[in-house]
Sequence to fold (213 residues):
Amino acid sequence: MSIDSSLIKRIKGFLDEEEGRRLYEIALTASIKGPCLEIGGYCGKSTVYIGAACKENRQILFSVDHHRGSEEHQPGQEYFDARVFDPKANRVDTFPAFRKTLELAQLEDTVIPIVCSSELAARCWTTPLSLIFIDGGHSYKAAYTDYSAWAGHVMPEGYLLIHDIFEDPAKGGQAPYRIYKLALDSGLFRPHPKTKTLGVLQRNPCPASPSNP
Ligand code: SAH
Ligand code: MG
Fold:
């Protein structure tokens, strides 16, 4: 795997190494067929794993993030990090760190950052995607918006990956798990084994049309 593990260790983020390797492996298969998209790049850790796979296939990764942080990244909250707080703007801003990561990982010709909310980016989206990784806001409203606005863009046999799945409510928030179950209940996706908290779903093939069984 062409990923610099010492670089990965230096990138701030919320992704376990085993989960990252699984992201890379799935993206390597998926991106043969089309571009990938992630929701929630933060400082670029997941971006490097998925982006490295896309680069190998001369494919593109769209990374959607407003770079203003989720609820838990705001001042006074559990995952606030003063190093990604812009005191002049008085707001979280992870975009400078994200750009630095792209430069260090040599992914500037592979990753297209889309700096806005996932909802806005979805509004005019029409490109079929071989992989979507949902790792944005963890309120139910945010997770549900990510799922409902994007899941339909996964191409047949493409992947829908959802981070932070905790089946036991004592271990973590339930929003990602709830959208994982919605995706399963939709009948559009079939499950693959999870890696830690990374849920892996694959879109079913198009049903055969009556004229072309
Ligand atoms: N995948 C990252 C971690 C993402 S943290 C890693 O590997 O480390 C969640 C990110 O989602 C934050 O950067 C936050 O700014 C972004 N986010 C939260 N809600 C969002 C929304 N509605 N639209 C776009 N980005 C959002
Ligand atoms: Mg996460």
